[in-house]
Amino acid sequence: MTATTQTQTASSTPARHKDSMKSTWRTTDRSQWNFYQKMIDFIGAHPVALDQPVPKHAKTKKVPHLGQISQHIWILSYGFLPLVLHQAFVSLTGWNISKHAAFHFYMILFNAIIIREVHILRRLGHKYGFLDGDVHDRDGVPDHGAGKVVWSLYKTVGARIAMMVWFTYTPNEAPLDVMSDWKWWAKLYFQTGLYGIILDFWFYVYHRAMHDVPFLWKFHRTHHLTKHPNPLLTAYADEEQEFFDMVGIPFLTFATFWAMGMPLGFYDWWMCQQYIVYTEVWGHSGIRVHLSAPSTLSWLLNALNMELCVEDHDMHHRKGWRKSQNYGKQTRVWDRIFGTCGERVESYEGNVDYVNQAYMPIW
């Protein structure tokens, strides 16, 4: 059964052309591709390679565990690289960059980091396969949706960086000015863990309202047209949802930190965002590994059974429509508190392979 058929079954309204998740363009003549399809191909952001096999596993086969350490190494390596380059420019020239330059510099590198993550996830997908892969392949980029996919990346990243620069960037403060203080590192450890929990509270409220409040569902349904998402569909949504994902939820999180007397600076907010977007992209990959969202507070979340695994959001898409479960996208704190956690089918504790573990390659 295709995603389109499932959508028609779940909704009583007839399917519209823009609702189709049909993806055949990659097998057509390249001369017929549109600009956005060529762009996706140029940056190599395809979720799978058509000329490589994807392993398929029975749901009872153990799922390899992917631990926190390699994920932290990946996020910190790519996250700190722009700060190092920024500081190198300051040290070599004696000049810091303006707000306008900072916006373009960090937006370009943020996009590059996301694209690099997509490249690596494609490799992991071909190595470990996908959840529910014995039943259904991953959805591709829709034939009519390449433009929406490309613009969603630039709009989401651009809006978040613009907000960060506007509220927190000061040209008289270079990365080394804050990073040379050990207190900043101690604060960063706490902030990156707490940021995901606070952001997830606001996301949970908004996300669950989109499902439960009848007149709001129309703003969220496009994102649920995919039942087996891939990383490029992370921000595949209508404009109203894009606004909350791009600006609304991050701003409420920033304001909460400010109200708690822990205002975020530009460089710590940048690192918090690296953890958030890493998990957002992973959460739509459907890769068949037991991976919980990286966090400096993962030890606490695991102890309370509040950690978020890849399968949790995958099940939200696969089984959810108007009514769903697993509304969080960084943790299961609020799902656990409000009783909306769903059952895991493949990556439940008894089916996890802790011997033959997976890891997140740095390159």
Plain-language structure description:
It is built from twelve helices and three strands. With 363 residues, it is mainly alpha-helical. The chain has one domain (64-358). It has a three-stranded parallel sheet. The two termini are 36 Å apart.
Described by the principal axes of the CA atoms, the overall outline is globular
What is the arithmetic mean of pLDDT?
A: 94
**How much is the radius of gyration in Å?**
20 Å
Sheet of most strands: 3 strands, parallel
List the helices and strands and how they pair.
Elements: H1 3-10, H2 35-42, E1 63-66, H3 68-93, H4 99-128, H5 146-168, H6 175-179, H7 182-212, H8 239-259, H9 266-283, E2 290-291, H10 298-303, H11 310-319, H12 333-338, E3 352-358
Parallel strand pairs: 1-2, 1-3
Observed structural traits:
single chain, 363 residues, mainly alpha, 3-stranded parallel β-sheet, 12 helices, 53% helix, 4% strand, disordered N terminus
Short description:
With 363 residues, the chain is mainly α. Helix content is 53%, strand content 4%.
